[in-house]
Fold:
Amino acid sequence: MVWLRETSSYPGSMLTVLDTYEMILALAFVCIVYQSHAVRVAKLVKLNEAVQYGAVCLDGTAPGYYIDKTSMKRWIIHLQGGGWCYDELLCFLRSYTILGSSAYWPPTIPLAGFLNNDPDVNPEFANYSVVFVPYCDGASFSGNKDEPITVNGRKLYFRGHRILVAVLDALINKEGLNTAEAVILTGCSAGGLSTYLHLDYVRSRFPNSSVHGIADAGYFIDAPTMNGDMYIRGQYQYVYHMQNCSGGVNDDCIRAKMESDRWQCFMAQYTYPYIKTPIFVLNSEYDTWQLKHILRLGCTPPNCSDVEMKAFNNWRGTFLAVLEPAVASNTNGLFTDACLFHCQSLSDALWTKIEVGGQNAHDTFADWHLARSGRWKEIDGPYPNNPTCGAHQDDSDSIMMPIV
Structure:
């Protein structure tokens, strides 16, 4: 059977959900295996006991985490990305994949970039213990719906926030994070959004630790398509309400919004002003996922029509205007480049070789996180004037681009 779903992006067009299912399977694999030459390997810990508390993946299987311990004092917690399921049918299809069920998780995964323990690649952070939290709820660890729904005879559970709670409980009670001096929360794409949404909550769980965040490619903006439609807004609104995310996002944001606007707390740009914990923004000014799915740009620059290139060139100004609270912050850090990438912290090359003003993302973040003298903010000029982008486009295309 092939399911078809009408989309609001192009009136009258149809999205083949079966194709989307196949795409999810392919993307999910790429989300795990970042680089073949990764040094660090993390082992899976399943939280079977969490099921009794309702902390389960979309299909009802147990959540868990991957862990590699090197230090009891310094930790990185990475929240996996992998897009969102925008409606019940897509969540149903997702529940049969690695992004919706722990039944498909491998016993070990390789880690690279910011999670690498190779001091030549990641000198300041190579000796941090790493926890990689697999993503299986479809709403950036934010859903909290008491009763499951049934789609095509299959029960689906929207319990992402409970998964996050269960993982943190286990890390504190079993792995010793209660004695941590420093905790860094991070993630890319949907995991980058998770970092914005949950950083203050994570800090509340580690009151005796220094907690910072670095959100990679998670600053998805509420912007119109080339045709002027607010397409992505409708997508996020539906996920927020479908999964009952009001109790699983930033509390201060929820309290500040009227009920009709609380869906905004599921987006980084609206959540950022309420985040109290120090946070570092890592993002491309021309994020390829946003160009495709928010702007709905149907080409790859520079191979575009004049109309498309105008929309592309205007995008940077739109993005930086929305990013202004981060740019203006006196305490938070930032690294934005003009590369056609989506996610950079999980690639050795993109984490260390892409430069803005002669400085890479690793060094900028390290200067900020460690409060060293140096530049804590780097904002690139317009495309295509950064020569380090083109030198590493293959690293993005083959490793990072498919993560959504």
Notes: Residues 1-36, 396-404 have pLDDT under 50 and may be disordered. Residues 301 and 399 are 20 Å apart (CA to CA).
